[in-house]
Amino acid sequence: MNVKIDTKERFEVIRPQDADLSANMSGELSALIDERRTSGSGNLILDLSLVSTIDPAIGSMMAQEQQKSYEMQRSFVICCLQNDVEAALDGLGVLELLNQTPTESEAWDIVQMEEIERELLG
């Protein structure tokens, strides 16, 4: 699986380069997310702008990664969903479980707001 990782001060953006995220990629993507969550800031944005199809196993994995992140006091935001991917996640019943935004800029805002919230609630 091809991905690009863009490191910022408070988060990292993981951008899969493959148009199709198949079931056999879920383990590799999950391991990458786990690795990046435990290094650096630990806050992650998963940019799916280049992904046009997604296997149900990936959708389930993303919901699990969302939960793991919040248990570890980290942010996990998914952004830039194409219509077919959004419909597939909605059909699986996981879309409402995901912290997702239409744009990467809005995802940055969510990560920063959640960081402030965690600092205030300490």
Features:
globular, alpha/beta, Transcription Regulator spoIIAA, 122 residues
Short description:
The chain has 122 residues and is α/β, with parallel strands linked by helices. It is built from four helices and seven strands.
What does this structure look like?
The chain is an alpha/beta fold and 122 residues long. It has a single domain, classed as Transcription Regulator spoIIAA. The protein has four helices and seven strands, in the order βββαββαβαβα. The longest helix has 18 residues. The relative contact order is 0.17. The mean pLDDT is 95.
Please work out how many helical segments DSSP would assign.
4
Q: Report the structural category.
A: alpha/beta
Rough shape?
Answer: globular
CATH architecture type: 2-Layer Sandwich
β-sheet strand percentage: 15-25%
Order of helices and strands: EEEHEEHEHEH
As laid out across the biggest beta sheet, the strand order is: 1-2-4-6-7
Q: Write down the domain tally.
A: 1
C-alpha-based Rg, rounded: 13 Å
| Helicity range | 40-55%
Cα separation of the termini? 37 Å
Residue runs with pLDDT of under 50 for 5 or more positions: none
User: Sheet with the most strands?
Assistant: 5 strands, mixed
The CATH C-level name is Alpha Beta
Name the average pLDDT: 95
Task: State the total count of DSSP E strands.
Answer: 7
CATH superfamily: STAS domain
